[in-house]
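Dear colleagues,

As part of the handover before I leave the project, I'm documenting each prediction I ran so the next person doesn't have to rerun anything. This entry is a single chain, and its sequence is reproduced below.
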Amino acid sequence: MWCGQYDEAVRYADEALRTHPDWISFDYLAGWALIHKGQGEAARERYRRLERNSRAWSGHVAFYTGLSYLSEGRHREAQAELLRALGLYRESGQKYSEMRRRFWLGEALLIQGNAGQAIAQFEEAEKASAESYKHDFN
């Protein structure tokens, strides 16, 4: 997929799901390829199915649904989904995911011309980073 072979990526994901229906993460991968192909609604359908199959994916689904809207220039819908993702990450204590998604939300806000709100998200990302940093990493 990273080489721009999005049709092939979707075919592989579909084949993996046919062969191994429990490998639901392939809906996420197919959705990502579909976003790159400019097929946002098809990507969102993949994400909805993924969320129906496993609530554990809800934060990621909201985030990537937001990206699908962002890729279509639908900034308000993107912002709403990115905020939903942040809430889900916060509720589940996933500080690292929250931090990373705050940066994306900040980018979306910058695209909309909301520099003040973007800076606030970047500052919140910095706080989440301090909370998620593992001192034993090195």
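The mean pLDDT is 89. The longest helix spans residues 75-92.

All the best with the project,
I.
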